[in-house]
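Margin note: ligand = NAP.
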Amino acid sequence: MKAVVVTEFGAQPELVDLPTPEPGPGEILVRIHAAGVNPFDWKVTDGALKDSVQHAFPLVMGSDGAGVVEKTGPGVTRFRPGDRVYGQFMRLPQGQGSYAEYTLAEQDGKIALIPDTLSYTLAAALPTAGVTAYQAVQAAHLEHGHTLLINGASGGVGQSAIQFAARFGARVLATGTPDLADHLRELGAHTVIDFTQAPTHEQVTAAHPEGIDAVIDLVTPTAGDIDPIAGLLRTGGTLLSTNHATDPDTLAIRGVRGINLANNPTAETLTTLAELAAIGELRVRIDTEVPLADAPATIAKTRAGHATGKTVVIPLWEAAKTNRLDATGIR
Ligand SMILES: NC(=O)c1ccc[n+]([C@@H]2O[C@H](COP(=O)([O-])OP(=O)(O)OC[C@H]3O[C@@H](n4cnc5c(N)ncnc54)[C@H](OP(=O)(O)O)[C@@H]3O)[C@@H](O)[C@H]2O)c1
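Resulting structure:
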């Protein structure tokens, strides 16, 4: 099978031939039709988890994927060949990931069935960004009328978070460049803050000198940099970071709740998100779909930033064409 791998931490991704894996006890072999691209994919191959998790090389890149169960191993009862499934497929100790024609998953892993009406492309775009957004908004304890800043709202996680927060009745302040402003408003943003014109915290302070209720920060890399954003919160507010940039103990001193979120895609959450996407209640904008052979170049481009939606890699390009964005039309 074809797969995109790195041979060591920090190496350039390359397209190679690997043996198609065989499912062991409790495992399923999935023929991948689409793989979703996330910043986490290259953070991992850069070595973000090298001190905490064992990695096998060559390491197939990617976590998110959608495809069809090709074969089941002994003892598998939850899935059968022909089932359409999606979820997170990264298994670092085994060197397995989703940027491949085939991958393995544990039947009790982070996977769920895809509704008939949801395309592989949209399903592959959901797991990491959708689950993170869903769990971030739940953890923010929003109430109707609360004001929430989503810092980094224009990317994959942010666009889903806008939709979930708006459903809670929150007033969403979303960062984004003017070219995306209409799109972010359509998703549910009340105000779009052009972070390229002036620092976001200055613009929010000017409009909300009394303080806001919550921040979901998808941008700030370290706790040392987050003070201006943290300073926007009223007492009793919540600051949630997806980059481990909050220091809950320091924030607690002034009555602000700090949360460092690590997404946890259960089968139940994945099923909920897929159903919402299938009926158009969760919209996912696809920036680009590229064949697996172009993935190394696409990763280089995508990691430079400027995401305006999700990038999806299509391993079985011709076969997958019939499933591209056809069923729901959501973009
Ligand atoms: N902890 C977890 O479980 C978890 C899960 C998912 C994601 N994450 C992390 O969360 C972050 C967001 O993920 P993602 O998938 O949404 O990434 P993404 O799709 O690359 O989106 C990031 C967005 O932030 C925008 N941005 C960059 N600098 C900004 C700034 N100073 N102010 C406002 N917006 C800015 C980017 O626009 P421009 O590039 O045009 O500036 C881009 O649209 C990443 O760091 C990712 O690793 C963590």
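The CA atoms of residues 182 and 192 lie 9 Å apart.
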